[in-house]
């Protein structure tokens, strides 16, 4: 869609909510408007920005780790040390067992989710305009965490770790025993226990992914509505206050995702 074709707020909003997608069946780029009825479609924009932001996180932290000094640190080193100490303190308070995975995992989740959320603070038309007029792309969404496929994929990874740690610490017998003998410790109530515990187990990744997606999708939509319904010269009246408030949401959602991951893995690692 070109700028001349965006005549109404409805078309403008619909255009900004489209993903740049790849139809694997026909190997061609499509937008959500002309999406074929097939399951094999990838949201290329979400995957691209998620991977790029993940690489930025790895390169930045590895560079600081290699150049760390005990003397007068740089501002970047101070900032990263504060983040690492903040995450480590939360892990030590919540996760009581010893694990070489939990702290790095929590740090990765916090910084990666924060970077993905932070893309929502970029000007709403900047990257889509560049991609459309210089690269010829039909659509582009730049906030990976506003894509439910990304958030549920991350939540699914956490769910796999929950099951892995539950079986590793308690064994398969202990894991199954928790499913069938809680919360009611009686053989007659095993079917009820199994239903309740199964729902509880699968609700963790679903709630984890949907919470992040819902908050970031709503934040992105508000920016789009402001840009669609107000003249360009007056948009700052609402954009600036919402952006300032959205900084809190961006940070808080990354923190919540990290904390819930630590809590779920801590519960999975305890023997009842």
What labels would you give this structure?
68% helix; three-stranded antiparallel sheet; single chain; mainly alpha; 272 residues; 4% strand
What is the C-alpha radius of gyration, as a whole number of Å?
22 Å
Structural category is mainly alpha
**What's the helical proportion of residues?**
55-70%
| Element-by-element helix/strand order | HEEEHHHHHHH
Query: Count of DSSP E strands?
Result: 3
**Largest sheet composition:** 3 strands, antiparallel
Number of helices: 8
* End-to-end distance: 58 Å
The proportion of strand residues reads: under 5%
Instruction: Enumerate the spans where pLDDT stays under 50 for 5 or more consecutive residues.
Output: 33-37
Q: Order of strands in the sheet with the most strands?
A: 2-1-3
Return the average pLDDT rounded to an integer.
88
Molecular shape: globular
Concise description?
The protein is built from eight helices and three strands. The chain has a three-stranded antiparallel sheet with strand order 2-1-3. Helices cover 68% and strands 4% of the residues.
Helix-strand layout with pairing:
Blueprint: H1 9-16, E1 20-23, E2 28-31, E3 41-43, H2 44-66, H3 75-94, H4 102-118, H5 126-134, H6 148-181, H7 190-229, H8 236-268
Antiparallel strand pairs: 1-2, 1-3
Helix pairs in contact: 1-7, 2-4, 3-4, 4-8, 6-7, 6-8, 7-8
